[in-house]
Amino acid sequence: MNIEEFRTYCLSKPEATEDFPFEEDTIVFKVRGKLFALTSLKKWEAGDHSINLKCDPEKAIEYREKYPDEVFPGYHMNKKHWNTVVVDGPQLFPKFIQHLINHSYELVVSKMPKSQRQGLLP
């Protein structure tokens, strides 16, 4: 998955938006104002193809153990709830990256009040 595929996939989620709230090179994806994915464009240009995604704490540990070279505690994020994922790692296929993005999006939506979740999840 390249940066444009990552961006397109994130923006394909219902009501997903992109923003640059931290600095000009950090692209953030949100749903109804809640962050579900981010990455550094500067790092991508330098060859570090990693993204930060929210994750259920138990699944986060599972993924880190199963993919120790591609999934790490979230860089500059709450290590319990966020993973940094190397998207071009040899073990991680595009479908699995999409699964992780879906999980992050759905986790963020599931924490919203019921009235705000309507229309965001199937």
UniProtKB/TrEMBL annotation:
<dbReference type="Pfam" id="PF04237">
    <property type="entry name" value="YjbR"/>
</dbReference>
<keyword id="KW-0238">DNA-binding</keyword>
<dbReference type="GO" id="GO:0003677">
    <property type="term" value="F:DNA binding"/>
</dbReference>
<dbReference type="InterPro" id="IPR007351">
    <property type="entry name" value="YjbR"/>
</dbReference>
<dbReference type="InterPro" id="IPR038056">
    <property type="entry name" value="YjbR-like_sf"/>
</dbReference>
<dbReference type="InterPro" id="IPR058532">
    <property type="entry name" value="YjbR/MT2646/Rv2570-like"/>
</dbReference>
<protein>
    <submittedName>
        <fullName>MmcQ/YjbR family DNA-binding protein</fullName>
    </submittedName>
</protein>
